[in-house]
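[Meeting: bench + compute handoff]

Bench side (C.D.) handed over the final construct sequence. Compute side (W.E.) agreed to return the predicted structure before the next meeting so the bench team could plan truncations. Sequence as handed over:
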Amino acid sequence: MIADNSVGVVAPQRFYSDVPLTLKSGAQLPGFELVFETYGTLNAARSNAVLVCHALSGNHHVAGIASDNPKNLGWWDNLVGPGKPLDTRKFFVVGVNNLGGCFGSTGPLSRNPETGKHYGADFPLVMVEDWVAAQARLADHLGIEAWAAVIGGSLGGMQALEWSLQFPERIRHAIAIASAPKLSAQNIAFNEIARQAILSDPDFHDGHYAEYGVVPERGLRLARMIGHITYLSDDQMNEKFGRQMRYDQHTYNYDVDFEIESYLRYQGDKFAGFFDANTYLMTTKTLDYFDPAYAYGGDLAAALVRVRADFLVVSFSTDWRFSPARSREIVFALLKNRRRVAYAEIDCVAGHDSFLLNDAHYHAVLRAYLENIAV
């Protein structure tokens, strides 16, 4: 039975642009396809559209039940739907799988029109700026001149920030959750270790593993295990697992002794079963490169001069990968430019993954802000 506050069963849609897209790197795609889903109804004035941007391992399936899999619930279903903080009775919500993704949008798993083979490692690096440029074409296709809001967590928050920079006249509100204006050296280091795990997998074949009919599962598995540790807080790990053993006594070997080991192996195996290694490599590099202040000598306030949107910035107390201090950098830079910005730091034990959870305080903040957006 589908709950009353669910958007219900949702089928993906496809948008194809045959206009070449020049990427920030200088490479060019002759055309591209984006897979997306929509929830709610676009009003007559086309003024109630909200774009949801996903994080590293996310996709277009934001809410509801996937039409091809009744067990596949949208990754932000607790937030999006009738009566939920992002209320589909008021807003027309769009979720899109980013360019370069592995859930149907043009990416490394797609066929290269020049060779007829999978792009693999030949797919060019796509930056946050390129994602936003592609999303703007989707907005044109949907007849949306300006978003009421662009919202996202983690890497999705970076996209919301980039929308306010690249298309300041096409976004009225930006909501950046558990995000940062750029990665720290520690974050870049974690990403590099994850990439090396994939690149050193014997089944990687220089990124052309699809032509060999294999997947670099070992590398992907390790990459996800590394990443997953950084998404959780120490408090949450202790609360969920502590030093709980799987057996009554030590086994004195390299198999699983502790429950946390079992959990990480499970997460790694699951991830390797559905995510593409080249997409993972590309997306972590996308994270590393994002830095709006780079062209301004590191001055974020100078980079944000052209912003016109109002902002809500949300951070979480135990998020050590995208700490509250990083969110406050965005807030202070916006205030220097006399922009309207609201900020909330949520006390939550779940670390970086808090932005995905149904925390009452967090959802109350989002609900209050979204209710005050005029459409």
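W.E. noted at the follow-up: The longest strand covers residues 32-39. C.D. will use this when planning the next construct.
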